[in-house]
Structure formats: structure tokens, C-alpha cells
Amino acid sequence: MKITYLKSVDSTQTYLKNLILKSEIKLPHAVCAEIQNAGIGSRNNKWSGIEGNLFLSFAIKLSDLPKDLKLESASIYFAYILKETLAEENSKVFLKWPNDFYVNNKKIGGMITNIVSDVLICGVGLNLVDAPEDFEKLDIVVSKEKLLNSFFKNVQNLISWKQIFSKYKLEFYQNRNFFTHNNTYKVLLSEAELQDDGSIIVNGERIYSLR
Questions:
Q1: Which structural domain, as residue segments, surrounds residue 56?
Q2: Under a CB-based contact definition with an 8 Å cutoff, are residues 105 and 84 in contact?
């Protein structure tokens, strides 16, 4: 995974997507910025940027993904790999369904995924050094370079979805005090039943990550 480091950018996702559309890079490829001014979060919310935090997007061809990966749950897959990478450095971070990173019951970041042609683009925001009000920062000190090198090494191991899901399923109980959004309304995760494809069923309705 080649990584392009930038000082400043509007959005790593937008920047990377433009490189892909112009066929200016070879995949897989990642873009990491010291600061971004128009980050994209879940449900098109803006992700606040504080200099020094992690602003990352990476792109992988669909044909290079694990064969059993459910694309609708790609954010769970890659977020859990990043969660495990952080845990290797003794972080207590956990993954709230489907794509949010939490420490001490406060959000420290998240991941979203998009498909452009035959390419999966993942965007990551993580409060490494500081956090806006009502958010939290990472509970360990780790350099971006070390974190990204370890993360992409784990990604390149092509761990199967089945392996990732079997571990995430054991930790799903950590969601019980939280909720997620389904269109315009909130869904209590304490009432959710996690399914093998990464979706949840609440009140008889199946909900996918779609992020």
C-alpha cells in the first residue's frame, strides 16, 4: 500500500477519488493529511478536523478484497482490523456498530466506505491527539506512520470476513448502551440481533451498514 502524505486537503476521500478517476495512481493507494477542512462523516455529516489527528482514505480494487467479504459490511470489516491494530498497541478502543470507534463511551472516530466503479474507497477519521467537545481522543500515543504501517500490513493479510466477524460477534455486547440511525430515526442496539453478514435485525427489520 503506497501512502501519499499531505499537509492540508479539503477531503482525503475527494482527493483520492479524483486521482482514481484520472487514472493517476496505481492501486492499492492511501492518502493521509495532517489537516482536512471539509471531511466527510457518516450520513454526509462534516467530520471536524484538528491538526495532528488522523485523516485517511485508502482505495483497493474490489477484485483484491477477501472473496467472502460482504461489501455492505466493508466498513465493519476494515474498522475492526483498525480496532485490532490499535489493540496491539494496548488501546481499549471498541467498535460500535457499524463503523464508529469509541473509548470510555465517547466517540473518537469512524470509518465510511464508498464504491467507485470497481474500487472500494474507505475514509477514516480518528482523534489521535485532540478531540472536539463531547468527543474523546485515543487512549494511547502512537505515531501515524507506525499505526498506518501496522494497519495496512494487517489489511494485506487478506483475513477472511468469517474470521473478522467471529471475533466482532463476541464483542457485539458492547453496543447495548448505544443506538444507531436507520434513515431518519434512532434504533436501540440493545434490541438488535447481529446477523452473519454484518447486518442487524430490529423489530423484524433487517438493517445494513450502508456506509
A1: 2-171
A2: no
